[in-house]
């Protein structure tokens, strides 16, 4: 197959228009990067805000948002290509299967079967008892 | 048991229920196997090449209805069996709070049992017939599994966590006990026996066991050397809970709930004292997790469980706690 | 019979060189095999490798059955016995059963069946074989160095802190074999999606292709979790990172969750391809369209997806929560439905057929019988109260052998016989093959049925010595194993014989439909001279003498002809 | 490997390109489940020991962690730019962007190495002489070493692939429009995404205390 026809076909294979110039490429990618950096810094800052158990939830939520941005804009999931969406979505569903059932077990396991060396369930720091080294 | 093993005796309360489901499922699967075999052989013979049987296309409608029919039938059958089995298992889960609490410690490759007053045995377990029993089990090393076929019961025994098994023996006799989870070299030698006796025989057996066992004595020494007695002794200036007669009692906790001071509670309170704080006390006790070894902990627990209520002298076994 | 056989054999008065330039003779020399990217040759490479592992794993089985002939532990030490069943399990699961049908028959047939010249990524296919061989060598090193004694399940903390076997090597071998399996899986998925011949719609795909597709989905999505769980073991054993150490608060059940998230779907990796094979064989020898094609397809997909949600039924007694056990029990009952659909559909495919009983058909009928038993005993194991009693006993051993050996291995032999003329261009001796098929069914039943009984009576698995009241069952089992071993060796003998002395097969010796039969036997390097265009669904079989040959008939015409 | 040319089973280059991208996505799905499984194991263990894991999180070096997060995010940008430029056949931009990606990836690894050295000096290897008191903190750090190590290995693999592809392109042995650049970019983004989750789990836990 000749190069010319392949170039034509490569253009056709994209749902989103492929940027052809340096300017267009940068204009499309830089804002995404700025948002990503902003999210990363926000996540770092928010981690110092005492929110109890919500700290980790917020951090992971921001991580998921970053994943979504990278997936949509850098990994071209915006392309209306069913194959890519299939592959890109399947793993999420399957990780969901794994997580849902593992946590279902852990959340409902008999109290006796929880580990013996169990610390406080709450996210509060351990009370500083005399003689214990702090962290 | 001798001769040929075929259908193990049903010696626990749940066993009869399990056997009923097994028999029902055997009947159902037998019927299905017969059906499939009859259809396979029947079709194979009738529609062998060259036979005179009528051939031709099936009407599309019938195909679909047959298909939907047996899909639905299988689904209903599966749901029925699920419901039956689950109701049975939920019924068996109701633990009796007054059950006889026996502690099982599994290790490569033996079973150790300890009865409420400290009577201990290895690779054997004596049980009274007709009384609810709660086995609280843990392992010292790897995963084992406590399996008594005649009880139709099995429970893995985990290291670092406890599991429990509630049962009520219904038949006297001697039943084999197996380790069912592969646990290393001598896995197949990790056998024992469960001896179910009439309650009065059981009481007699237990009374005949060496009393005030060494474990509790050892525990008493540890109780002092590790420093428990510094606070928990009656003369101590620190405001600490009274431990004599604690085992088996209901304890009011700081969060308003009430818990029975079973062995699990005592154990947790030593390892992680800040978890369940007894009402009216400051959380000042240091955790002993990582300080006490499993053996030492067992000794201290044995001592605590053998401490009589106020009045009697410590170190002497007290009568079985809460049995009516 | 004789006139049928006449249609299979190439006429002697044909051209002097009846074999055209096929994939076997296209290139010569060892290098042309070891560096080949031809899916057909890679399938043969896999076949040779798997044969070696089947022999190694079978050796383990023989030693186990010998030891269990008597209740005492007399033939070998307890440690040797533990190493033997670990060898048997590890080799058979990861180095034989998981790759068995997908990597041999699947690799050979998938492109042929959908009308493609090769798999989507031929070099990835070769890489997959090299990964597999590398993994196999690692495992052999572990076995020669002294073996592994953890059982194939690698349960922690035994495998991390107590085992004195070569767990590290074995775990790495399994991880590597897993990547080989992932490579095959993604190759198959991409091939089915992107390389179907013109006109080959999704609902014109033969069921074997559907089954391989479902299997591949499971391979790609489950295997990495196995790698993760074994990596945690590797971390703990190699670097002392205490992930599962109970003394630090590690959770032994976490490993089991991760492990069974792969290892239960792995059962479907083993059995789904056999479903496909059986569907091909039953339709061909009953001369009928498969009964309920769409239901069969949905059953495969249903099993592939819901198969991921039932792993917890391996953990009913492990200390997992009762609530979760109930959920898993429910889903395990749910997955029984598609399996039942398959059995009934195969049975009804026979209805109004023109059945002949060549060896592949005998294997297939045996498969249906054994799989039905294996599947029904699966219901016992899905019910919590019964599972509590029989899990970790010989009942479970019998159950999964019925599925994985009575099912998958029988299907492998059946499929191998069915496509042998296509693969080699030679016909195997039919009489011997029928004898082997029948012997395999009875040998198998004789070996494994007693295990149900002794399992229910309480015989725990993985015991080198056992109470004498179980001996009678073990003796029966060991005797059956002799028959079974003979039945497994016999096809190896007659298939090898046929390579040299077998009659030369025609392109379509069974008068089967399916694109793989529309090319030469053996196929040329590029599979098809002219790539086929598909105009009809699969399995449009026509009863003999009731119309023209299937290839000359209008699609969607009634099969009976004389209605 | 003369990319761009039609390869054996394919009849059109478009289909082949589609296959390269789909195949890589399938591989990514499987990688995602590998890391997903490990991260799930981490979260599941943390569930039982939140305080110990928080203590472990406080010990991890937030400066290195955050710097590396920013480096990796930026490398994702340069990689995306590089892949798009390669596809648009803008060799100068593509070369520079890929070079920058390599540099950022190497910088990440160097920082990671320095961080690991500092961690070892602080006694954060969960062996004898481990710095933290809670037993479960050892598990937290076991995961820390395993996850960062495995991630580092993947990053190293990604770097080698990019270096090899870019080298070939610069030498003229591979056309810039080869689908391989896009596949490599997908892989690189996955490495980035994995780190996006490791960062909060390993570094941000317990900071609010």
UniProtKB/TrEMBL annotation, chain A:
InterPro entries, per database record: Caa3_sub_IV, Cyt_c_oxidase_su4_prok
Transmembrane annotation, as ranges: 21-48, 54-74, 86-104
GO CC entries: plasma membrane
Stretch list, region Disordered: 113-135
Location in or out of the cell: Cell membrane
Keyword match Membrane: yes
Principal localisation: membrane
Protein name (Swiss-Prot/TrEMBL): Oxidase
Lineage: Bacteria, Pseudomonadati, Pseudomonadota, Alphaproteobacteria, Acetobacterales
TrEMBL record, chain B:
Enzyme class, spelled out: translocase
Record domain Cytochrome c: where: 214-308
GO biological process, one term: ATP synthesis coupled electron transport
Subcellular location: Membrane
Residue span(s) of domain Cytochrome oxidase subunit II copper A binding: 97-208
Keyword Zinc: no
Annotated membrane topology: Multi-pass membrane protein
Stored InterPro entries: CcO_II, CcO_II-like_C, Copper_CuA, Cupredoxin, Cyt_c-like_dom, Cyt_c-like_dom_sf, Cyt_c_oxidase_su2, Cyt_c_oxidase_su2_TM_sf
UniProt catalytic activity: 4 Fe(II)-[cytochrome c] + O2 + 8 H(+)(in) = 4 Fe(III)-[cytochrome c] + 2 H2O + 4 H(+)(out)
SUPFAM superfamilies: Cupredoxins, Cytochrome c, Cytochrome c oxidase subunit II-like, transmembrane region
GO function terms (MF aspect): copper ion binding; cytochrome-c oxidase activity; heme binding; oxidoreductase activity
Pfam families xref list: COX2 (PF00116), Cytochrom_C (PF00034)
Keywords: Copper, Electron transport, Heme, Iron, Membrane, Metal-binding, Respiratory chain, Translocase, Transmembrane, Transmembrane helix, Transport
Function: Subunits I and II form the functional core of the enzyme complex. Electrons originating in cytochrome c are transferred via heme a and Cu(A) to the binuclear center formed by heme a3 and Cu(B).
Protein name: cytochrome-c oxidase
Lineage of the species this protein comes from: Bacteria, Pseudomonadati, Pseudomonadota, Alphaproteobacteria, Acetobacterales
UniProtKB/TrEMBL annotation, chain C:
Keyword Calcium belongs to the record: no
UniProt keyword Protein biosynthesis, yes or no: no
Basic and acidic residues biased stretches: 544-556
Highest taxon of source: Bacteria
Record region (Disordered): 544-563
Protein name: Cytochrome c oxidase subunit I
Transmembrane segments: 43-66, 91-114, 126-146, 166-195, 207-234, 254-278, 290-310, 322-341, 362-386, 398-420, 432-452, 472-495
Residue ranges annotated for the Cytochrome oxidase subunit I profile domain, each copy included: 33-535
Cellular component GO terms, alphabetical: membrane
Automatic annotation (TrEMBL), chain D:
Sequence similarity: Belongs to the cytochrome c oxidase subunit 3 family.
Membrane topology recorded in Swiss-Prot or TrEMBL: Multi-pass membrane protein
Alphabetical UniProt keywords: Membrane, Transmembrane, Transmembrane helix
One annotated GO molecular function: cytochrome-c oxidase activity
Native source organism of the sequence: Teichococcus aestuarii
Residue span(s) of domain Heme-copper oxidase subunit III family profile: 1-207
Subcellular localization: Cell membrane; Membrane
Transmembrane segments: 21-42, 62-81, 142-165, 186-204
Keyword Transmembrane helix annotated: yes
InterPro entries: Cyt_c/ubiquinol_Oxase_su3, Cyt_c_oxidase-like_su3, Cyt_c_oxidase_su3-like_sf, Cyt_c_oxidase_su3_a-hlx
Protein name: Cytochrome B
GO terms of biological process kind: aerobic electron transport chain
């Amino acid at each position: 197959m000749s190069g010319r026809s392949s170039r034509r076909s490569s253009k056709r294979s994209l749902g989103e228009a492929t940027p052809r110039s340096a300017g267009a490429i940068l204009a499309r990618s830089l804002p995404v990067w700025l948002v990503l950096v902003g999210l990363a810094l926000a996540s770092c800052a928010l981690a110092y805000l005492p929110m109890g158990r919500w700290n980790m939830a917020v951090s992971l939520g921001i991580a998921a948002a970053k994943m979504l941005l990278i997936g949509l804009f850098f990994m071209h999931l915006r392309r209306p290509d069913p194959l890519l969406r299939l592959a890109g979505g399947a793993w999420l569903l399957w990780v969901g299967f794994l997580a849902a059932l593992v946590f279902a077990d852990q959340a409902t396991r008999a109290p006796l079967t929880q580990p013996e060396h169990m610390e406080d369930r709450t996210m509060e720091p351990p009370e500083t008892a005399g003689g214990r080294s702090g962290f | 048991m001798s001769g040929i093993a075929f259908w193990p005796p049903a010696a626990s309360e749940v066993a009869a229920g399990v056997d009923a489901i097994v028999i029902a499922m055997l009947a159902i699967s037998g019927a299905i196997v017969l059906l499939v075999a009859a259809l396979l052989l029947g079709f194979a013979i009738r529609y062998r090449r060259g036979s005179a049987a009528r051939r031709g296309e099936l009407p599309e409608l019938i195909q679909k209805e047959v298909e939907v029919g047996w899909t639905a039938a299988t689904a209903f059958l599966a749901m029925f069996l699920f419901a039956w089995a689950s109701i049975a298992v939920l019924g068996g889960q109701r633990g009796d709070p007054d059950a006889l609490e026996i502690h099982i410690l599994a290790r490569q490759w033996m079973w150790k049992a300890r009865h409420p007053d400290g009577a201990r045995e290895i690779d054997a377990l004596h049980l009274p017939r007709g009384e609810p029993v709660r086995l609280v089990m843990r392992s010292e090393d790897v995963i084992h599994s406590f399996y008594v076929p005649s009880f139709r019961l099995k429970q893995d025994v985990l290291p670092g966590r406890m599991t429990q098994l509630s049962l009520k023996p219904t038949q006297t006799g001697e039943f084999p006990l197996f380790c069912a989870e592969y646990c290393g070299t001598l896995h197949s030698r990790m056998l024992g026996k469960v001896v179910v006796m009439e309650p009065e025989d059981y009481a007699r057996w237990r009374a005949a066991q060496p009393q005030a066992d060494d474990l509790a004595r050892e525990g008493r020494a540890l109780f002092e050397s590790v420093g428990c007695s510094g606070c928990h002794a009656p003369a101590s200036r620190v405001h600490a809970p009274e431990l004599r007669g604690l085992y088996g009692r209901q304890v009011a906790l700081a969060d308003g709930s009430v818990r029975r001071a079973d062995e699990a509670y005592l154990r947790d309170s030593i390892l992680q004292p800040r978890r369940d704080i007894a009402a009216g006390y400051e959380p000042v006790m240091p955790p002993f997790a990582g300080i006490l070894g499993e053996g030492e902990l067992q000794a201290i627990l044995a001592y605590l469980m053998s401490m009589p209520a106020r009045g009697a002298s410590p170190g002497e076994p007290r009568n079985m706690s809460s049995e009516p | 019979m004789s006139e049928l056989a006449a249609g299979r054999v190439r006429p002697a008065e044909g051209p002097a060189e009846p074999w055209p330039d096929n994939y076997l003779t296209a290139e010569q020399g060892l290098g042309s095999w070891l560096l080949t990217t031809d899916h057909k040759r890679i399938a043969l490479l896999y076949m040779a490798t798997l044969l070696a592992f089947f022999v190694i794993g079978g050796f383990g089985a023989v030693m186990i059955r010998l030891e269990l002939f008597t209740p005492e532990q007399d033939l070998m030490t307890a440690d040797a016995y533990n190493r033997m069943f670990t060898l048997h399990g590890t080799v058979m699961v990861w180095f034989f059963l998981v790759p068995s049908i997908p990597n041999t028959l699947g690799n050979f047939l998938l492109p042929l069946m959908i009308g493609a010249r090769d798999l989507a990524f031929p070099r990835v296919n070769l890489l997959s074989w090299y990964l597999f061989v590398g993994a196999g060598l690692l495992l052999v090193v572990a076995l020669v160095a002294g073996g592994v004694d953890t059982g194939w399940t690698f349960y922690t903390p035994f495998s991390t802190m107590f085992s004195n076997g070569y767990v590290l090597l074995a775990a790495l071998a399994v991880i590597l074999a897993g990547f080989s399996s992932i490579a095959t899986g993604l190759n198959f998925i991409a091939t089915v999606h992107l390389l179907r011949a013109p006109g080959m719609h999704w609902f014109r795909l033969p069921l074997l292709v559907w089954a391989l597709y479902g299997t591949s989905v499971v391979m790609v999505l489950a295997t990495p979790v196995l790698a993760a769980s074994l990596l945690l073991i590797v971390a703990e054993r190699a670097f002392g990172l205490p992930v599962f150490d109970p003394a630090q608060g590690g959770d032994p059940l976490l490993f089991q969750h991760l492990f069974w998230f792969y290892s239960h779907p792995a059962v479907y990796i083993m059995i789904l391809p056999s479903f496909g094979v059986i569907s091909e064989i039953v339709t061909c020898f009953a001369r009928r369209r498969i009964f309920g094609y769409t239901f069969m397809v949905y059953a495969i997909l249903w099993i592939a997806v819901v198969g991921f949600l039932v792993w917890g039924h391996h953990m009913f007694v492990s200390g997992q929560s009762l609530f979760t056990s109930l959920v898993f029990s429910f889903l395990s009952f749910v997955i029984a439905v598609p399996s039942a659909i398959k059995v009934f559909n195969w049975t009804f495919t026979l209805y109004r057929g023109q059945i002949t009983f060549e060896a592949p058909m005998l294997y297939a009928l045996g498969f249906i019988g054994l799989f039905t038993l294996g599947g029904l005993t699966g219901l016992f194991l899905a019910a919590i109260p019964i599972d509590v009693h029989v899990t970790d006993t010989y009942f479970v051993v019998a159950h999964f052998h019925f599925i994985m050996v009575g099912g998958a291995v029988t299907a492998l032999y059946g499929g191998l016989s069915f496509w042998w003329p296509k693969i080699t261009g030679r016909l195997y001796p039919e009489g011997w093959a029928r004898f082997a098929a029948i012997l395999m069914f009875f040998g198998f039943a004789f070996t494994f049925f007693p295990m149900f009984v002794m399992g229910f009576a309480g015989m725990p698995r993985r015991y080198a010595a056992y109470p004498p009241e179980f001996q009678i069952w073990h003796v029966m089992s060991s005797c059956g194993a002799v028959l079974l071993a003979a039945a497994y060796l016999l096809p190896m003998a007659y298939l090898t014989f046929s390579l040299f002395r077998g009659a030369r097969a025609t392109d379509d010796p069974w008068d089967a439909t399916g694109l793989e039969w529309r090319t030469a036997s053996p196929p040329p390097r590029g599979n098809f001279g002219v790539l086929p265009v598909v105009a009809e669904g699969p399995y449009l079989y026509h009863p003999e003498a009731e119309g023209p040959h299937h290839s000359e008939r209008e699609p969607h015409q009634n099969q009976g002809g004389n209605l | 490997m003369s990319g761009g040319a039609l390869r054996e089973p394919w009849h059109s280059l478009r289909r082949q390109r589609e296959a390269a991208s789909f195949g890589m996505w399938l591989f990514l799905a499987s990688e995602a489940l590998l890391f997903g499984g490990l991260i799930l194991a981490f979260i599941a263990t943390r569930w039982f020991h939140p305080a110990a894991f928080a203590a472990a999180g406080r010990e991890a070096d937030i400066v290195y962690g955050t710097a590396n997060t920013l480096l990796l995010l930026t490398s994702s940008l340069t990689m995306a730019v590089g892949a798009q430029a390669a596809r648009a056949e803008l060799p100068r931009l593509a070369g520079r962007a890929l070079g920058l990606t390599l540099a950022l990836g190497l910088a990440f690894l160097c920082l990671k190495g320095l961080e690991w050295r500092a961690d070892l000096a602080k006694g954060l290897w969960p062996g004898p002489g481990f710095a933290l008191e809670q037993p479960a903190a050892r598990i937290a750090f076991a995961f820390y070493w395993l996850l960062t190590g495995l991630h580092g290995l993947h990053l190293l693999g990604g770097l080698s692939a990019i270096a090899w592809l870019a080298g070939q392109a610069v030498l003229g042995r591979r056309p810039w429009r080869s689908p391989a650049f896009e596949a490599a970019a997908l892989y690189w983004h996955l490495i980035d995404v994995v780190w996006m989750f490791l960062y909060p789990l390993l570094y941000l836990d317990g900071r609010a205390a």
